[in-house]
Amino acid sequence: MRGDRQKLDSTWVVIAAYKEEAALGEVLREVGANFPRVLVVDDGSPDSTARVARDSGALVARHPINRGQGAALQTGLRIALERGAEVIVTFDADGQHRSEDALELVRRLDEAGVDVALGSRFLSKSSNMPLSRRMLLAAAVTFTRAFSGLRLSDTHNGLRAFRRSAAEKLHLEMDRMAHASELLDQIRQHRLPFVEVPVRVRYTPYSMAKGQTSLAALRIVWEYFWGRVLR
Amino acid sequence: MTTFQLIGMSLCGILVAIAAYRAVRKRDERLGQLGWLLVFSAGFAAFVDPDMTRKVAASLGVTRGADLVSYLTTLALLFFAFWLQGRLRHIERNLTIVAREIAVLGARSEQTLDRTPPDGQLTSSAEGQSRT
Q1: pLDDT (tens digit, 9 = 90+) per residue, B16-63?
Q2: Cβ contacts (< 8 Å) between B130 and chain A: which residues?
Q3: Fewest CB atoms within 10 A around its CB: which of A46, A67, A83, A188?
Q4: Which residues face A162 on adjacent strands?
């Protein structure tokens, strides 16, 4: 029990947020109940996202202009490492992730003896995932298998946990949504041992509106392509 | 010689002069400027002798001079788009680095304020901030 407490004291939850003033307060209440250290990277939101985060007791870092989720996560990783994090959890700001799943990811790092734990919606028994989203994600899985060579069941899930040693090796340069594929490339490149952990995602009208459309998926492929060509 | 030729020659001539000047004066841009010098010189020559493009096209197996110009323009545009995309990504990357540094500095100052002891002296502790 004491060990768990110590573990969580050195665990930082990094949340990249852009225009999330509506959902962020509730997300931080839920995360804060389990994790004592939370960092919100406000990615240049024009609304009061940063104030909501600060009022909820999170440490706030702020990009002066919007740079994308990948850029915000890399900023979060760097700050968390500077703060001495031994484990870093990435968590979405729109309320689709569950705090208990994040705890499970941290627990599985030790249990499985790996450096990275990746949340997977497709390993979970119950899911209210809409069919259109399921098809889109299946295409993303096929794409990632072809380019990264990693056999994963879910490639664009924002709920992940990294040991410090793994986070230190990650350098995300794809600023926007293609960072999820880039991250998997780097996991493979550095041969980081990983485990997939079943997680459940809440699909609400809010999170669906914030999620990726088919057109956005094409943009991700475009961004990923250029990111690799013009590295 | 038509008015159109005269205008084209003048524009290309100015561009040739600029590229030549930059190639001589700016050492780090020399290769790129020599490339432009070549392009503008070809343009200048084409305006001086429009029949030249036909002759070059024929020697390359392309039937019309206009077709050759069209192919070369397409290739040049593709190259330019690729180069521009690279430059854009470079600038975007630098922009992200600047935004990140500002965010990191801001987060560091939050830590300093949070760790201020009651007597007002700052500590050098690297320990993270706790939520309350």
Answers
A1: 999 999 999 988 888 889 999 999 999 999 999 989 888 999 999 988
A2: 36-37
A3: A46
A4: A88, A116
B96 → closest Cβ in A61, A71, A226: A71
Predicted TM-score (pTM) of the model is: 0.81
Tell me how many helices (H) and strands (E) chain A has: 10, 7
User: CB of A228 within 8 Å of any CB in chain B?
Assistant: no
Q: Residue A136: which of A205, A204, A198, A208 has the closest Cα?
A: A208
- Residue B17 token pair: 């002069």
Q: In what order do the strands lie in the sheet with A160-163?
A: A59-62, A38-42, A11-17, A87-92, A160-163, A116-120, A194-198
Q: In this complex, do B128 and A71 lie within 8 Å of one another by their Cβ atoms? A: no
User: Residue B34's closest CA among B13, B75, B26, B8?
Assistant: B26
CA atoms of A214 and A212, how far apart (whole Å): 7
Q: How far is A12 from chain B (nearest CA, A)?
A: 9
Question: ipTM of this model?
Answer: 0.88
